[in-house]
Amino acid sequence: MCGKGTMQSPIDLTDKRVLIDHHLGSLHSHYLPSNATIKNRGHDIMLKFEGGNAGLGITINGTEYQLQQIHWHSPSEHTINGKRFFLEEHMVHQSKDGRNAVVAFFYKLGRPDHCLLSVTAIS
C-alpha cells in the first residue's frame, strides 16, 4: 500500500487537498518538563524521552498517546502550497495498542520559541 500511495512524504499540503472535518474530537495535551537525550541522526535532530514518560502526551477522542520523541527537519520536510519553511517539528506519540499520532509544527524565522529554548544540554 505505501509503495502506491499518493500522499507519501514529503507532502505538499495544498488548499484544494485539505478538508476540514468538523466532527473530529478535540486534541488535549498534557506535557511536563522531562528528561530526554538529544541526538543528531544526520537527516534530523531528535529528542528521545527517557523511560517513565507516562502522563506526557495527548488525548484524542479519549485515547491517550504517550510522547515518544520529538524531531526537527531543516528545511521543512513538507510544504504548504509549495512553500517550504525554515524548520518543521514532529512530536511522535504512541497509544498502548501501538497506534501513532504525530503533531507537526512549521517554524518561520522570527521571535524565539519557548519550546526550542527549553532544550538544554547538561552533562
UniProtKB/TrEMBL annotation:
<dbReference type="InterPro" id="IPR023561">
    <property type="entry name" value="Carbonic_anhydrase_a-class"/>
</dbReference>
<dbReference type="InterPro" id="IPR041891">
    <property type="entry name" value="Alpha_CA_prokaryot-like"/>
</dbReference>
<dbReference type="InterPro" id="IPR001148">
    <property type="entry name" value="CA_dom"/>
</dbReference>
<feature type="domain" description="Alpha-carbonic anhydrase">
    <location>
        <begin position="1"/>
        <end position="123"/>
    </location>
</feature>
<comment type="function">
    <text>Reversible hydration of carbon dioxide.</text>
</comment>
<comment type="similarity">
    <text>Belongs to the alpha-class carbonic anhydrase family.</text>
</comment>
<protein>
    <recommendedName>
        <fullName>Alpha-carbonic anhydrase domain-containing protein</fullName>
    </recommendedName>
</protein>
<dbReference type="GO" id="GO:0004089">
    <property type="term" value="F:carbonate dehydratase activity"/>
</dbReference>
<dbReference type="Pfam" id="PF00194">
    <property type="entry name" value="Carb_anhydrase"/>
</dbReference>
<dbReference type="GO" id="GO:0009570">
    <property type="term" value="C:chloroplast stroma"/>
</dbReference>
<dbReference type="GO" id="GO:0006730">
    <property type="term" value="P:one-carbon metabolic process"/>
</dbReference>
<dbReference type="InterPro" id="IPR036398">
    <property type="entry name" value="CA_dom_sf"/>
</dbReference>
<dbReference type="GO" id="GO:0008270">
    <property type="term" value="F:zinc ion binding"/>
</dbReference>
